[in-house]
Predict the structure.
Amino acid sequence: MSAFANTRGGIIILGLSDGDFLPVPIDAAKLAADLASVCANEVEPSIRAEFDIAHVEGHPVVAALVEELPTGRKPCFVKSKGMESGSYIRTHDGDYRLSSYEIHILVSGRGQPLDDMAVVGGASVADLDDDLVVSLLNRIRNRRGQTMASQSDTDILKMLGVIVGNGHEPSITLAGLMTLGRFPQQFVPQLNVTFVAFPTVTGRPLEDGTRFLDNEPIDGPIPAMVAGALAAVRRNITRRSVVTGAGRLDVWEYPDEAVREIVGNALMHRDYHPSSHGSQVRIELYPDRLEVVNPGGLHGEINRDHLFSRPVTSSRNSRLAKLLEDIEIPSTNTTVCENRGSGLLAVAASLQNAGLHRPVFEDSIRNFTVKLQGATYPLDHSSGSRHDNVAQRSSRESPRDKIRALLTKGPLPAKDLVEELGMSRGGVLRWLRIMERDGEIETTEAARRSPRNRWQLVVSDFTTR
């Protein structure tokens, strides 16, 4: 129960034997009552599961649907073991105890971390890049009104959280060093970006022993690392043709706008707690995809289902995010971020314009991964959605494809989908939650258990109704 509540939820079934899953004799009413007692009294916070007594081959079984807890209530742990030893996560078919670092990530999600405001030992104003500082001060004075325009350089840097303290030699914050430092890695060597281009889709070496096609550590302040990442990706990708209604358009394999936004987000939202200072932001290019991985999962009360439907933001590093609004990427007129929560919407739009799938996210508490799928075929915008094109290429439909096809006719309740698909209720509910998590479908009612609730396709740029 702890693992399901801390991950994506799940269904617990009592009354089937291990291995062959055959029904065994049980007192279903007592088991259901005992399970409800465990939910209420033996885990913290308590869980409100949805119980049902179903029948398999004429024998009763107890099923409990455990929903994922909101971020602000995690981690769920077994009381008798305590938070440190009794917090679990679900991976594949096993429950694994959360590490101290993963527990830290979940607990920090309840409030506003201040790791970006930590003082960097040994760093001084002399370690800041003069050109970056001047550019920031000019931008602030020009864009933030008379209040800022009348302040001294030192006072502006203090207001922005670049420096703290009084006296002759103020201290430099981690946010200040990472945005304006000449070489931040002098003090925090692993707070950088690594880029690797693999020759195979699995990351395995070629038969001749070649492990990497390109391998580069990217150092410097955040704006320089974003620029370096863009350059590394571009030199390892090619242009391709995308079919449009007006003809063919030559585009980069992965659009600059998407790569810039994703890498900038990874550096802005990564975990900067001292326990993560040994982990870099990783960019991994495979023949069929591009992956960007940063330490620390999603922070705060972010609904994954809304990442592509509306602006969403919850800054783990609020001071750093505020600074990056006004820090420009070298040789561009573009800042690292807008800090308005609209970045993923822009990424999705640029990918669709390039004929690519929207990004896929993986949030494992310890890491957050963004995957961009490479184009394996041109997308003809005049012929319908990408889902339609995929369906034409495959004669074997998955449950996801079947559910999507049924919902193109209009919203349906879960019980109708169970009947149409010939699947178990638990199996259908699992696919519905996966598709809801991926932003493909949504409920018609706020209370999903309402008898009036129906499931429907999400209307967006990626769905043709």
Q: What stands out?
A: Residues 142 and 170 are 25 Å apart (CA to CA). The longest strand covers residues 59-66. The two ends are 38 Å apart (CA to CA).
